[in-house]
Design goal:
About 70% of the residues lie in helices and about 0% in strands. The chain is an all-alpha fold.
């Protein structure tokens, strides 16, 4: 594309001296860039909307029917697409599952307070997870279903392992911060405690845990374990 370099004076005529030509050139280029971005953005947004709709449809199927009940043709039909279009966004079922897990983990990420927003982000995170599992049981149902399936599906096991590794790093960071702020017993090992928290929270997504009363009891016990040490008496 050729770049326009004509400069215009305040009277609307070409500036023969060429003063300000660089400014005009930049302005025209910026206008072209803005128009181009405006033309591209709706298409990109449409693609993202379709992708998210497919992920939500798959997420809902797993929540309602379990992993075995996931049918990609039905997922596509629910969004008003054909199977070929679904494969354009998700070439394999594994890719679609990755999208579902990312969607579920995004819900868990909402339980993390922005940096500096809470004096005790670890306990705030645990309580927010409890609220999430109570208010959005589909999230726990999907993660529990995928965790069970991963025990006999190597490709899914790899995806879940990557997901849990990221979660472990996040928890470890919260634990180390809590220890620095003297909100956690300093002798606790952050790696071990992060694994304990993950095991506890993961078990709460399994149907064997049962009632919400048991879940509440488990959370209370976990908070007791993580309770900061009492100050030494004088």
């Amino acid at each position: 594309m050729m770049r326009a370099t004509v400069s215009w004076s305040s009277r609307g005529a070409p500036d023969r001296a060429g003063a300000g030509s660089n400014d005009a050139s930049v302005s025209i280029k910026c206008l072209i860039d803005i128009m181009s971005a405006a033309a591209v953005r709706p298409a990109k947004s449409h693609r993202e909307d379709r992708r998210e709709a497919l992920v939500r449809a798959a997420f809902n199927q797993i929540a309602e029917r379990g992993f075995e009940g996931l049918r990609t043709r039905e997922v596509a039909a629910e969004v008003g697409l054909n199977i070929a279009t679904l494969h354009y966004y998700f070439p394999t079922k594994e890719a679609l599952i990755r999208g579902v897990i990312a969607h579920a983990m995004q819900r868990f990420r909402t339980t993390l307070a922005p940096h500096g927003a809470s004096a005790d982000p670890l306990r705030r995170h645990l309580r927010a997870v409890r609220t999430l599992l109570r208010d959005e049981p589909q999230v726990g149902a999907v993660m529990g279903e995928l965790a069970l399936r991963s025990a006999r599906d190597p490709s899914l096991a790899q995806i879940m392992r990557e997901t849990y590794d990221g979660w472990h790093r996040t928890l470890r960071g919260l634990l180390k911060r809590a220890a620095r702020d003297e909100l956690l017993a300093p002798e606790l090992n952050s790696d071990d405690v992060a694994a304990l928290i993950m095991a506890t929270l993961t078990s709460m997504t399994l149907p064997t845990v049962g009632s919400s009363q048991r879940v509440d009891q488990a959370f209370r016990q976990l908070e007791r374990v993580l309770r900061p040490p009492l100050p030494a008496s004088a």
